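Backbone shapes recur. Consider a single case.
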Amino acid sequence: MKLYPLFADLSGRQVLVVGGGVVGERKAAVLLEAGARVAVGAPDLTPALLVWAEQGRVQWLRGAFDESWLDEAWLVVAATSDQALHQRIAALAEARRVFVNVVDDAEQSSFHVPAVIDRSPVTIAISSGGHAPMLARLLRERLETLIDPVVGPVATLLAQMRHRIRARLPDMALRRRFYERLLNGPVQSLLRRGQWALAEASTERLLDATEAKPAGSVVLLGAGPGDPGLLTLRGLRALNEADVILHDRLVSVEVLALARRDAERIEVAKQAGNHHTTQAQINALMLEHASAGRRVVRLKGGDPFVFGRGGEELEFLRSHGIPYEVVPGITAALACAAYAGIPLTHREYAQSVRLVTAHCQNSNDTLDWRALAQERQTLAVYMGTSELPVIRSRLLEHGRSAGTPFALVENGSRPEQRVVTGTLANLVEQASLHDVRSPALLIIGEVASLASTLSWFGSPPVGTVPGQPPAQSKAAAA
């Protein structure tokens, strides 16, 4: 985030607008709406600005720019057609530690004027950092149609009752739930119809009915592979309702950014070969926060029920009487294959798919390698980067062809995604050559060769697969 969003209270504070033309007039009008004391410095003014000056709404500093105009200013807007003057004003403002906006010059500006959606007292501002103002305006137009004008009256009602609500509901989690019930209830409809007294009465009744202590709960939520666009709508809602988020290390920053800003985030670091938080400690955290009446989201990469110990955690919650629900996520096998252009099943090459974990030597010993080595199936191997030599040798020992294609998808669905391809014979060497690291999913089977022709996301695959991969299915060819 290059710019820090900031809403400034300019009421009664002087703002200098340098330039008396149409742009200066537009800037002055918005500043007047915000209650600022506006001084306009220019040799001449537009008719509207001249009228405002005669009415005393703005102060006219007549003549060429003078450095002394900056003496009383909290903000400065440079709105002339003289670029050299703009540079001088920006430098002088910087020296005085006064924020300046230079019209149509993002580099010289220390603050930017956003596109605004006004639902007073609610204000929504959109900025492109000064680099694409038309995009910001387009977004504003779209949001204008989505945000109900009743938002303003609702905010006014809540402002009037804020002190009473805080006094009656001192617990933050309880107060948050009250607001959610209020905003999803009849109050907005009543205010839309102009029935203010009924809206106040409805709010009071809800305040009286709010429980003294909320019941805690846990949502077991799959975050998907990393692309925040793959999070489900129910998952997004859960993140915005959470009081506490217990998240794995590999949950992407972009997914975490979708959560409510004031939710407590606790990293429960679990990464292949590097467990800083034990499962028992995670269970204890879920119990602690849910027992205190908080809504807990246990946020896991991928899907919580696919090699995510989700079942174990539900068993623990059930044994302690903690209410829970599960919101599935897109597991790595589905996401990594899709983002690498690899169909897990294909009627010409694979009629089944197996999801396998190769997390440690003990789990390898329990696998049915004879079944896994069968032809015309796809293997999706989770957490297997440290066990590649064992995987290769076991499959070859049990009859899988050395020419079987593979694809290693590292950081699947994320901007840094890489796909390394080859055959079972050179699996270990290719992974070492390209320094493949966790998180990475291993896909073994004939369909893996399609990565070279069907890839669509990120960089093209690296590595080689001997022979020509099938360009199209027989059905498509027909």
Notes: The chain has four domains: 14-113, 152-209, 217-330, 333-466.
